[in-house]
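Input sequence (729 aa), recorded before submission:
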Amino acid sequence: MILPKNLSLLALVALSAPLLAQDLPKPKGLSLERLYRYPLVNGRSPSAPSLSPDGSKIVFGWNETGERKLDVWMMDYPSGAKRKIIDASKIEPLPRQDDTRTQLEKDEEQLYDAGIAGFSWAPDSQEFLFSYKGRHWISDPQGKSIRPLFDTTWGISSASFSPDGRSIGFLSSGNLFRMERSGSGIRQLTFISKSNTSIGGYTWSPDGRHIAVTWADNSKLGSHVMMDFSKDRASVVNIRRMWHGEQSVDQQIGIVPATGGLVRWVGGLPRYMWSKSLEWSPDGQFLAIGWIKDDFQEYTISLVRADAERAYPIYQEKAPKNYIPDWRPLVWTRDGSAILFGTDIHEGKFGFRSVMRVSANGRQVSKVYAESHDVVALARPRDSDRLLLTTMSRSPLVTEITIVEPDGRRQVVVPIENGFATGKNFDDAAPPMASWDGKRIVTMASSRTQPTELYGVLPEVRRLTVSQRPEFKQIEWADHTPVSFKAPDGQTVHGVLITRPGLDKTKKHPAFISSMYANSGKLAWNGYFENYAAMELDMVVLQVDFRASWGQGGEFNSGYYKSMGIVDADEAVAAKDFLVSLGYVRPDRVGVWGWSYGGYLTCMIMLTKPEVFHAGVAVASVTDWKSYNEWYTRRRLGMEKDDPEIYKKTSPVHNVDKLTGNLLLVHGMLDDNVLFQDTARLMQQLIDKGQQFDLMLYPRDDHGIGKDPSRPHVFVSTMRYLWSKLSQP
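Predicted structure, token format:
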């Protein structure tokens, strides 16, 4: 619950919700609680769709009622005829002898059963694999013949078919195994035995003779203790996670014969590196390895022969400034003469994300697709020379599919206007899905007013699924207007302005910058929160592609190097200035809110930009970067031991003196990503400095605050806080 400023933390339990924040006005449409409860109004979008190698079928997880549990659906393509082939509720779990779980734990296992998603086709398109209820299953496309690979509690993961389809590989107990599809036997392929070490991934060579594996030693991985306070007696929850400063990364890449044996570790590679790609040449003779140096300042593509012991570099690039961004896709040409890769570094300088070609001997580097906009996905169908790109030629806020033919001709496909042509990821977009011959293509597309759905691309563009419940038609949508403004350093910052159609612009309205994060201005499906504020509360909402967003080239994408919470806090101030310049926003009633990094940015803004914003809500905020993962922090800030001052400058716990606005801190107490200790430490620092703040804790939730009672509660609490503070006279 939200703690009023004039009450102590000890009084928290005595408070009731009506006293804490102004109730939201009765909605004209669906309530915010309803919009975040199951069955979902927007439905359950097709999950993890997979196009068969021959392009004739799409298998996906779906629930046409909007409930949580996904069944398995099959669609004939391109006709679009679909049918449910596997009812998830009819797959029974294996029994548990001596089950010591509480009744609540048993009930929640049922409640939060998300069903079936994640599929892997056999090369002949006649069967597919999936995992559910602790077992891996194999099924025909009709769902008539479904059987577990092993009808045991033996835990396995990462099951996949061999290139010829005769075998199935899988991981178990830290090693790699294969079983014959005919059921004739199981063979162990690797024999890792050292404690805390394991095979974590594998890739078949196309000729089926070798398997590339990744190995890791997790003995240096840190530990942490959390507390579950929701029980009669609080219990300890132990977790393992990476911490900054541990330098716990120890990994190797190896090659093992497909018949099994000792792994031959690839020499010429550091054991502390950030592996990006493992791609076999089409003939299975070479393995391409894309990797980033431990300090994120160099990227290398190395090759190793399948029968050799040492890799050699064929392409290298250094960060012109900042760091090497994460987007580095890699595919071979079909004839195996060259590698196609993604980069945003050109002739030693940052530019837009582009597709380049390097010959297999490393002697020739040339451009394949290099324009004045970002490419955000790269793929090549297995048996085609056609390239499938996701590009941003129209705007940094939307994408389209660009098909590049072998002769250089280009075809641009826009499945949905003013939206995303493929799925939106953290640091890039997904490529479309294609049959092995590249002649049939499908995608997952969305916009701000259209949830993610399956669309056909080739042979024709058309929508294939409708997941929304009838209630969805009741929703009235705000105007989503792309905007831009200048940051203090002159960089153009893009975003989307969300306002009610017909908003009275002769009046001044409260406003907030919402869900702050890199790429939060993208015009992909984003839920209801901002639309509700605009349509029901007449608030003006702005979402911004802050520094570190993709779509504007490598320098912008890496632009908060050693300035997290500084350069983007300046951009937030510029965003407020932009809002005020519209003429219908109250300058004294502008707020901010965000989750995870957005929660962190909210803290930095409220603590270092006093009297600029009237209110902020920080959900699951990092408050000291020393407490977070090294893979994240080292790229963006370097090592704390080398520059302790930058860690202090960018961490809220060291910047608590200037808070003047209203700040609500929100955290799930079982968060194993951004630890609750971050918020607890910031609370103590604020208390020590006599600073007042508000608090909302979720004792049984993790980073996502996703339990059924909690999910609508956190969004309503956030909206109530912003509304109550920003609608004040």
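Checked by second reader. The chain has four domains: 9-30+475-726, 43-95+104-155, 167-372, 378-470.
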